[in-house]
TrEMBL record:
Belongs to the archaeal/bacterial/fungal opsin family. The keyword Transmembrane applies. The chain crosses the membrane at residues 12-35, 47-66. InterPro entries: Arc/bac/fun_rhodopsins (IPR001425). It is found in: Membrane. Keywords: Membrane, Transmembrane, Transmembrane helix. The keyword Thylakoid does not apply. Pfam families: Bac_rhodopsin. This is Putative proteorhodopsin. It is a multi-pass membrane protein. It comes from uncultured microorganism. The lineage of its organism: unclassified sequences, environmental samples.
């Protein structure tokens, strides 16, 4: 429950190391990770129908994918002059996607 939000916040930290990044990126990714995890847990624990928890969790994952592939985080990464930053962001993006 802790490692996924931390991994996803790394997207923000990588970008913040080389560019001025809005806090909105941090919050969108963090909240997206919670939307992905909490309903999944609730479905597995029996607090919520498992299918409903799965669908809500997938919506959170889809939102995260949008943010890192086409959203503001992706645009900031593409505008970054650093090849190392772009490479790190791209590698992490594919880890989350696959």
């Amino acid at each position: 429950l802790l490692t996924v939000p931390l991994q996803l916040v790394e997207f923000y930290l990588i970008l913040a190391a080389v560019a001025a990044v809005s806090g909105g990126i941090f919050w969108r990714i963090f909240i997206g990770s919670l939307v992905m995890l909490v309903p999944g847990y609730m479905g597995e624990a029996g607090y919520l129908n498992a299918t409903v928890g799965f669908v809500i969790g997938m919506l959170g994952w889809a939102f995260i994918l949008y943010e890192i592939h086409a959203g503001e985080a992706s645009k900031v990464s593409a505008a970054s002059a650093s090849a190392a930053t772009q490479s790190s962001f791209t590698m992490m993006k594919w880890v989350v996607t696959v």
